[in-house]
Structure formats: structure tokens, C-alpha cells
Amino acid sequence: MRHVSLILVSAIGALLVCQEGVAEAQASNAAALTVAVKRPIEQQWQEAVPASGWLKPWHEAISAAEVSGLQITEVLVDVGSMVQKGQPLARLSDASVRADLRKEEASLATARAGLARARINADRARKMKGSGVLSDEKTIEYLSTEQTAIASVESAEAMVESQRIKLSQTTILAVDDGLITSRSAQLGAVVLSGTELFRLVRQRRVEWQAEVSARYLPLVKEGLAATISGPGGGEIEGTVRLVAPTVNSDTGRAMVYVQLPPVTHPPIGLYATGRIELGLKPALTVPETSLVMRDGIGYVFTVDNDKHARRVRVETGRRNGGDVEILSGLDRSSEVITTGAVFLSDGALVHIEGGA
């Protein structure tokens, strides 16, 4: 333990001597540190807006029962099935519907037979009108009977068409191309009209409903590219489809709808982060090693003509590949210290690497 204490005392003493040496060198106008310098560079950087939100279906579609009291006899697809518009998804028992259809077709045949008889009498009445063979009352009776028979046939035809529609509704069809995401149809179940049996993502299209800060809203336009950090570390590319016209007053954020390309198994329901690309924007940059943070404020050190370090407060922006964007506070003609800046104080004399 005594040996360790001696080592610590020696190390602290050496550090104090070093600091005193730097201070003495600065006081005697000797160069305290050899540094590298570099002028700020203007680069073209991709500017992006950070965003986050849920992956949700572009639109969902529901295939539901349109008739009541019929039993499900076949279920033809399951969750994850890719379907096309008009494809059968399930079938209901149709025996009673077919029986009702035959009944209505028989009624139609009867109505048509009645119409045929009524037309014969009506035609005869029209031919004999004014001859005195038939009274006016009888003529009117035959003509009105014909009109009633015509109405009866039309009514019977409508009933037959209704039953045929009902028969077609015993087959549950996909209302659009898409991916089945939910199935509530169970074999043997008796359904009610309006019962949801299947739900699908229309055209397999998933969108990113991303929230962005309202201050970026004027910059985000339809058609801009977007990149999402997908599951497994991959990236998904998309396009801004719509920018919401309102801002949430509670969060100060607005919704941006990003259209994604169709995929076999869309990652619906995931919360994802990403960015919306605004295009190339100029950036005045310096190496990140130039930046010194003190009390939460960013500074860089420049070298004046007398080779003294001058501390300059700066506002920073984007970072990319080891460089940092300087938004304000720095003249582009300045000589910025890129190494050892963290050890300098304002006014320190420095030796420029490679200089005289």
C-alpha cells in the first residue's frame, strides 16, 4: 500500500511539473504546443429530416358476409395468403338459397304465363274497340289486366335476380389484390350479415406514418425520398406520398405519409426511425477534432498572424465522416487548429506543424 501511494505522489508531481512547464512556456512567449491547422472547407452534404413512426397498411379491405343465417362450409385461405381481386376466400351453405331461387323461378314462369293470356285478351280488345262487340268496361278490364300482368312479371324477375345475387354471396370474395392479415372465418360457424371474415392489406402496400418536428414541415414535400431503418439492420427506401396539413398542438409534430414498395411480408405494426432526404445542401465544415465543448458550448481555436491561439465560439450542425458543419461564428478564411485544441487556452502561443 505504501508503495502504491509513492507511485501516485510521483505521478501527480510529474503532472504538476508538466502543467507548470506549459504555463512557463506561455508566459515566456515560447510555443506551448505544436499543432496542425486547416481552413474550413465547403462541402455538399445530403440534408435530411429525422423522423419516426409506425409502419401501417396503406389501406385495409374487409371481406364480410352479406347474408345471414348460413353456415361456413369451406375456408379457402389463411393469414399470410396472397390473394387477387375476386378470388374465393370462403363458401357458405347454399342449399336453402338454391331452393328459394327455384321457387322464385317458378313464380316467374307463372307470371309470364299470366301475361301471355292477358296480352291475348288485350290485343283482341284493342282490335274490337269501337265495334260494339265488347263493352267499354270489358275493354278497359282486359287492358288493365295486361298492365297488371306486366308488373307481376317484372316483380317476379326482380325476385329471381335477388335470389341469384344472394346465391353469389354465398361465396366470399377478395375485394382487392392484397395480403390476408386477419381471418375470423371458422368452419361450421353460422354467420350474420356484416360479419367480418377476412381483412387484407390492399395491394400489399405498407406506408410509414412518420412524425417530424413542425420546424421541418416547410422543407418536406411530396415526392422526396425517405430511408427507414428496417428490421435486422437493413434499410427500406420509400417516397413521401402526403404531408399532413395540420400539426399536433400537444407534441408540435406533423405526420408525413411515406409510401413503401410492395413486399411479400410487410413489417406491419413496427415502430421505425429514419430520415427524409431533402437533397444536397452546402456545408462549411471542419474536422471534428477541432471542436472543443466546454460547459455545453462549442468552440474552435484559430491561429492569428502572431501564432497565438484564439478561441472562437461556434454553432454546429450536421456531422458526417469525421467532419462537423459550422453554422455560424467562423470565418471561412480562418486557420483552424485541428490537433491538440483541447489542451489550449485563449491566447496561447503555438507552433504550427510544418511551419517555420
From TrEMBL:
One of the record's GO cellular component terms: efflux pump complex
Position of the signal peptide: none
Sample GO molecular function, one term: efflux transmembrane transporter activity
YknX-like C-terminal permuted SH3-like domain mapped to chain residues: 283-351
Highest taxon of the lineage: Bacteria
UniProt cross-references to Pfam families, sorted A to Z: YknX_C
NCBIfam families listed in its UniProt record: RND_mfp (TIGR01730)
Family stated for the protein in its record: Belongs to the membrane fusion protein (MFP) (TC 8.A.1) family.
Entry protein name: Efflux RND transporter periplasmic adaptor subunit
Organism: Rhizobium tropici
Species lineage: Bacteria, Pseudomonadati, Pseudomonadota, Alphaproteobacteria, Hyphomicrobiales
